[in-house]
Structure formats: structure tokens, C-alpha cells
Amino acid sequence: MDPALGPPDAMAEKRDELTPMMRQYHDLCARYDDALVLFQVGDFYETFCAAAERTARLLEITLTSREDSTGEYPMSGIPIDNAESYVETLLEAGYRVAIADQVEAPGESSGVVERAVTRVITPGTLTEDELLASEDNTFAAALARDGDTLGLALLDVSTGEFLATSADSSERIADEISRFEPPEAVVGPDAPADLFSDACMVTPYEPEAFDHEYARETLARYVRNPDVLLASDAEIRACGALLSYAEYVRGGDHEGERGETETDDSDDRDTLNAAREPLGYVTQLTRYDPREYLLLDAVALRSLELFEPRAVHGHEDATLVGVLDETASALGGRKLRDWVRRPLLERARIEGRLDAVEELTGSVQTRETLHELLRGVYDLERLIGRTSRERANARDLRSLRDTLAVVPDVRAALEGTDCDRLRKLHADLDPLVDVRELIDDAIVTTPPVEITEGGIIAEGYDADLDELRGTAREGKAWIDDLEQRERERTGIDSLKVGFNAVHGYYIEVTNPNLESVPDDYERRQTLKNSERFVTPELKRREDEIVSAEERADDREYDLFRDVRRAVAAEVERVQTLADALATLDALVSLSTVAATYDYCRPELLEDDDQKTSGGLELEIEGGRHPVVERTQESFVPNDVQLDDDRRVAIITGPNMSGKSTYMRQVAQIVLLAQVGSFVPAHGARLTPVERIFTRIGASDDIAGGRSTFMVEMDELATILREADERSLVLLDEVGRGTSTADGVAIAQAITEHVHDELGATTLFATHHHPLTELADDLEAAFTLHFAVDQTDGEVVFHHEIEPGAATGSYGVEVATAAGVPEDVVERARTLVAAEADGDSPPSMGDSNPTESEAERALEACLGEATQTATADGGDVPADLAAELRTLDLAHLTPVEALTELDRLQRLLEE
To answer: Is 1 labeled as ligand-binding?
Structure first.
């Protein structure tokens, strides 16, 4: 076990002899033994013993010590006012963090100040704005098994969004996990934790929480009839356990600001039976079937660059979401990402979004007015979440009020819209007039951050508070006049009236004037050059002021909490409004992109519209890659024509000609259409696709013991198991990770299987030119190529796709363009020419006749280099010889092979 977790061994041996404060620390560490406890001492969060040594190293802070009668203990601390940045570092290091706050004021206790864990901060349950990495959802997950069924629950603790699904296939659940990328998960007994990625923290949690009856009771506090809403016992187990865990980590035992203490006084952590309040802002559970959405597994999400760019030095926003996101609010941004994460299959739902985008695209004034208004919308989902958890401050409530003030204008801008989707949004835009008026009446326009020190409740809201404030003002006004009155009464022109936090109000007289001090002055403080006094009337007035201000602060705090609870009671109305605003913002964003970048409305085909039933039809005129066209000065559009008679396209052409871009743009156009977006094309007609598979680009998993070729074969195995006639499959350079003969054989077998058995609509880009002959043998296969012009040895790419097969891969020419040294390129040209003349170089051995001329020439060139390096009887340095022996030609592209050969030749010359 990590020594930084759990009760420190040095303290455990002497627990009963520890000071009360150190005993508190020990006991909290024992109770929260799976988290690193940050223990409030004054203005700092402290750690002790092994935890202190660990945090000092991780956070780069000073390691000190604290001593009591039992010994000296290492100690390190972080300032509370700046704790978030340190907590973030601890989370990144893999720790869960338990925040142990002082839950009573120092003056309220005769003994040690009471402390309790008010929340446990974990990667999947963040609610603090400073710790949330982005405006996107952060989901915690729970996985439960019941028989063959796996239930998956997902909860965003910051917004209250709560989802559930299940499947009998672990692969299908793994795909759903990939969609949402939860940073943390709790896993029930017998459930496969390995479905979560290495980046996800799988947190141990009480197995009893996954018990069906206990989970159902927990879930019933949030939703009615969970047995009716959910489709399986596995879903009930996952949902109930996840809610129980969320209650535990979010500090349901505490109210947190002035420190109500925990209701469970047991020294042992009893997470299931502790009296915790439900998360009041979790008001809806959405049960969905993965088959309702276009399925994108982790490979497709990565290959299509939906959320993260693959290029290390790429543009920051070079993702599909990046080019679509013109949203004005955090709400809209989250909604748009969810739509891209889960494209639709149901034609009616897609058409509903497209209708709204079309109307907004055609109405510039409405679109721009809405966008400007939505810029004034705050993150209502997170605001109402904080309000329900009683962690919202007065500024949060004012932000909520400011958002509500925008709603009437948004409704006015939607007046008269035609499509059903926009009319429904208009109806859902409840301005919550009562909530807005309550906040307007109760909270000052610019309140302070702190809610316990007064100055947040508006004048006129509460008569008792106004009276207390009046008393304090009158007292201060009397004191303001006191200085002039006392100067006149005593004749001491230098007399001053002042105040400090220690001694309160005083009258200060310099030493030369002490003889003129009246008899009713009582000495309060002696300074070097003066004396400070108080009169009975001044003391009485001071007591009145202090008492009135303290009572006013307490009254304000109570009133604020009442207002906050009243707002929290309207959580469902606020969430409905938030969803409507988010949806509208996402639609405005899609319409803005469509209008700005010349997108067109796609036409969705019904099954009976297709030429043949069952398969897909995809027709794109002048299609463009939505991401690449934003990063290039110009982009060449290309057409696509796929149907049941032409569903396997074998695409050839040189590197850099545009094969991968073409395939990705087809998939992204399909995805955009099913999101409900217009698409970058002159025209598009398509059948909704149920799943997109990709095998694009080279990657490996060396840590997991898998080479590039093994990763490629794993991804292909998934495609061959799960693709069907409603799938779109993208295959790029399949079979390049092994010998040329094996690669061609694998690629041909896969093409035949996809065509004959799966019936999937497929785009297959390859440098294995013999595969183009399959178009003559397979009924629904055909060839496409990217043509180039070659003049004086230079290749000009036109990036236009044409029917038929390419005449070559132009590997040597591409090597030239890449800057490979001229002597290496010329040698490669010589070998290509020799091959063309039928003269096989001795070093070629039995080169397979299916290899491309460029690849064979490059291998020959490398072979001659190896012979030269070893022909002189062993003068080659040992490290160079070792490099030559271990050189893996099967994993090198032609350009990489030439570059590697040039490097080795230079080493040999040296």
C-alpha cells in the first residue's frame, strides 16, 4: 500500500497519546484510507509523515516538521487560498484527495477545533471550475455485471447529466466507454475492469453498493420506478452504485460553509450507511440503447480526429469539433460535442435538426441576434449544480439571474420561426420570472465572493436586517462626529478617534496634551508618544455597532441560504431551460458554419429510396474535408459515388496525393449529416450509416507487447467480426507491416471477405497495385486513383480522384520531394531502371514479383549498403553492424528506408 495513504504508522502506534489535533488527523486518515488527506490548520492544508514527504516532492514545497509529546513528525502544507493548483497536481499523480476542513470557528469550541472531510476530490467527480479541464462533460462511470449482461452508468457530477445503457457484448460496452472517456470508474464484482483505458482511474468501492436491492433503493431516491425505466438488473446495479459513490465523494454529510459536523461519528468509514443527502440536481436518468446512435469505437474516434488532432504539431483546433464550434456558451459547446460523440440514426430526429439549421442559415439577422444574446448565457448546468450542493456563492446566483434576464430576448428572436424544432425550443425557454425576481430583490448587484461576512443582501429585502444595519450606521455616524465634539470639549486640537481590530474604537491623545484629558476618559492602550482612551458612551456605542454588525452578518448568511435553497428547489426548471439554451446554441453554431463555409443540406435516403435494399447509398458532389480545408490555402473537392453495385472502392496513387484525406472526408461528411449538420459539399445524398470502422495510419503498443503490424491486425479483426452491410469501412495501407508477399495476400483476402461476406461499403487505399485487378473479379468492386503529372523528374499532385488504377507509387519522386540526399535518390533511380529492363541486381535475391518497383529498388539499395559495410573483413564499427542486422525493412516506408540508409552511410564514412 502507498505509505502516503491511510493512518501514519508512527502515529498509529501512539494513537491514544497523540494531541487531540493529531488524533483527528490520524482518525480521518484511517477513515479515508484510499485518499490523501489535506488537513486544515488555520490558513493551510497540512499533511504529515509519509504523506508530507510525498506531497513535498510532488508539489515542490518545503518539508518541515511538527512536534508533540509523542515525537516529531514530518509536515508539509499548501495555502488554502491557492489549493486548487496543488490538488490538480495530486490528481495527475493518481491520488484521490480528501479535504478535511475546520467545521467550526476557533472561538466556538472549548477544545480542539472540529474538523471533518467535506468532500473527496477524484478525477471523475470534479465540480470545481478551477479543476475541470474544459467546458466538456467529465463523466464518472460504473460497470456492473448481471449474468451475461454488462450495465454501464455515466454521471457528470458537475452538471447532473446521468446516462445508462447495457449490452451482452463486452466489445459494445468498451465502445461506449470510448465515446465518453471517463477519467474514473467504479467496478462491481466480476465486471471486467480492463474495458477501461489506462488513463481511467479504476477506484475500489464497496461491493455492497452493487447489491441489487441496495442499488435499487439508492436509485429510487432519484427516479421513480427504476425497474420500468431501466432495461436490466445490471443497469440498476451500475446506476445505484455510481450514485452511492457520488454521494460519498461529494461530501453529502456536510453543508460545508459554516461547518455542520458529520452525522456519522463512527471511527470506521461506513460509506454505505452514513447519513448522506442525495444530489438534488441529479433529477433525470436517460436510458439509451447504443444502437440508437452511429457507433464510433476508440480507433474511429482517434482516426477521424473528432476531438483530438493526431498531428503532434497540428493546429490547436484541427479537429472536427474545433471547426464546428462557433457556440457562444459553455452549454452549447457541451451539447455540440455530445452530438458529435453520438450521431443519430433515426431519420426524423436528424431531419428535425437539419430543418432548424436550414432556417437559421437562411435568416442572417435571426442567427446573428441569437448568437449575440447567447454570449450572455452562463453555464446554468454547473451553476444549478453548485446551488443544489449549497456551494454556490452570491456571485453565482447573480450569474444565474443575468442568464434569466437574456431569456425573454431569446424568445423574442425566435418568434415566428417555422420549423418544429425551433418552435419547441421557444416553448421550452421558461424565463423563470419568479426566480429572477427573487435574486433581483435579495442579492446586491455586485456581491462579494465571501458569503459569511455581509454585504450580499440588498436593502429593503428584510426588515430585521435593515434595522440592524441602521443601528450600525447610526452608531458609526455618532462616532464620526465624536472627534470634532471631543476636540471642542477638551481643547485638544490634535485629538483623534480611531479603530483597530484588536482594541476596537479609541480616542488618541499625544503625550504633551495628557494633562487636558477629562476625568471620564478610561485608559485603553499606552503607546510611545501617546495614550489611547475610551469613554463609557464610546464603549456603549461600540458594543452596539459590533453587536449589530455581527447579528447582521449572521442574518445575511441565513437569508442567503434561504434564497439559495429557494433557487435550488427549481432545479428541474433551470435544467430544462439550460438544455433548451444549449440546443439552440448548438444549432446556431452549425448554421453559422454552414453559412460561412458554404455547406449544403444533405438529403437522407429511406431504405425504399435505395437502388437495392439492405446496403448503403452514398453520393457526394464536390465533397471537401471540413478540417483540412480550414488549414490550407486551397482545397480540391472530389466526388463520391457508392451504392450496392459499387461498394468496394480500391484507391491507388502516390503518397501525398490525398488518399487518406479523401477517405476521412467521406466518413466525416457522413458523420456530420447524421449529427444534423450541413456538410462541406455541393450536394450530398446518403443512407444513414450504423457504424464507421477505420484502419488508418501506423501505431503500436510496445508497452503492451504489440508491434505496429499486430495493432493493425487487431483492428482489422474487429472490423471483420463486427462490420456489416450498414457499415462504412475505411482501410488505409493494410498489409504494409509485413513482407510484401504476405501483405498483398492479407490485403486481398480482406478485400474479398469484406466484399463477399460482410457487404460493407468500403474505401481501401493501397500501394499494393495487384489489388486493383480484384475490380475485374469482384462484382461490386471498382478502382479509383489520384492522378499526378511528372515533368523532368518532378511530380505534381492535382489531388483529383479519377476512375481506374494508378500507374505507380512514385516513391523515388516523393523521396526527392522529401529532401532525401541526391546520391541515394540517384542510386534508387538506377535500380528502378535496371528492374524495368529486367536486370535483377544480385542483392535482390528472389524478390517477389508483386513488389512495387520503388520498394524493390530501395530494398536492393539497402542490401548493397549492408554488403559494402561488411566486405572489408570486419572494420565496420560494432554498433553500426548491429544496427544493420536489426534494421526492420518491413516496417519502413520507402522514404523512411532511404533516410535510414543515408544516415547509416554517413556513419560508415565517419
So the answer is: no
Check: CB of residue 429 under 8 Å from CB of residue 407. Answer: yes
Q: Are residues 611 and 734 in the same domain?
A: yes
251 marked as part of a ligand binding site: no
Tell whether residue 547 is among the known ligand binding residues: no
Is 500 one of the annotated binding-site residues?
no
Do 419 and 479 belong to one domain? no
Q: Round to whole Å and give the CA distance between 72 and 288.
A: 56
From residue 722, give the alpha-carbon distance in Å to each of 156, 580, 690, 726, 828.
30, 36, 11, 11, 42
Residue 144 domain flag: yes
Residue 793: per-residue pLDDT: 60
In a domain, 155, yes or no: yes
pLDDT tens-digit readout, 245-294: 999 887 644 444 443 333 333 333 344 555 567 888 999 999 999 989 99
State the Cα torsion 880-884-889-894 to the nearest 10°.
50
pLDDT in tens, 285-330: 999 999 899 999 888 998 999 998 865 444 556 899 999 999 999 9
* Type of residue numbered 421: R
CA distance 659 to 642: 16
Beta bridge partners of 121: 97
| Residues 578 and 622 grouped into a single domain | no
**Location of C-alpha cell 428572436:** 413
Q: 121, 155, 184 — which closes off a domain?
A: 121
State the pLDDT at residue 740: 73
Q: What's the chain's average pLDDT?
A: 85
Residues 830-882 pLDDT 10s? 776 776 666 555 443 333 333 444 444 444 444 444 443 333 334 445 555 65
Point out the residues of the chain with pLDDT beneath 50: 252-271, 312-314, 609-612, 700-705, 842-876
Q: Is residue 509 situated within a structural domain?
A: yes
Q: Which residue range is the domain that position 36 belongs to?
A: 9-121
**Using CA atoms, how far apart are residues 126 and 844, in angstroms rounded to an integer?**
61
Strands (E), 252-340: 286-287, 295-296
Q: Answer yes or no: do 410 and 335 share one domain.
A: yes
pLDDT value of position 225 = 87
Q: Give the pLDDT score at 1.
A: 72
Angle in degrees, 0-180, between the axes of helices 463-490 and 536-568, rounded to the nearest 10: 160
Residue 233: which H helix or E strand, with range?
A: helix 233-249
d(CA 234, CA 429): 36
Task: Consult the annotation and say whether 431 binds a ligand.
Answer: no
Does 653 carry a binding-site annotation? Answer: yes
Indicate the SS3 state at residue 117: strand
Structural domains of the chain, count: 6
Classify residue 623 as exposed, middle or buried by CB count within 10 Å of its CB (0-12, 13-18, 19+). buried
DSSP-derived secondary structure letter, 646:
B
Query: Alpha-carbon distance 775 to 784, whole Å?
Result: 10
In tens, the pLDDT along 185-201 reads: 999 998 999 999 988 99
546 and 592 together in one domain: no
Q: Which of the listed residues 72, 97, 121 is the one where a domain comes to its end? A: 121
**Does the annotation list 496 as a binding residue?**
no
The answer to whether the CB of 850 falls within 8 A of the CB of 744 is yes
Backbone dihedral angles phi then psi of residue 184, each to the nearest 5 degrees: -150, 145
Model pTM greater than 0.90?
Answer: no
Q: Report the pLDDT value the prediction gives residue 864, as an integer from 0 to 100.
A: 43
Any domain includes 272: no
Please indicate if the annotation marks 656 as binding a ligand.
Answer: yes
Residues 724, 760: contact at Cβ < 8 Å? yes
Single-letter amino acid code for the residue at 756: D
The CATH number for 202's domain is 3.30.420.110
Q: Give 378's contacts (C-beta < 8 A, 6+ positions apart).
A: 329, 330, 399, 400, 402, 403
Assigned C-alpha cell, 579: 438544455
Amino acid at 349: R
Q: Are 601 and 348 in contact (CB under 8 A)?
A: no
Q: Can you give the pLDDT at residue 852?
A: 46
The answer to whether residues 627 and 749 belong to one domain is yes
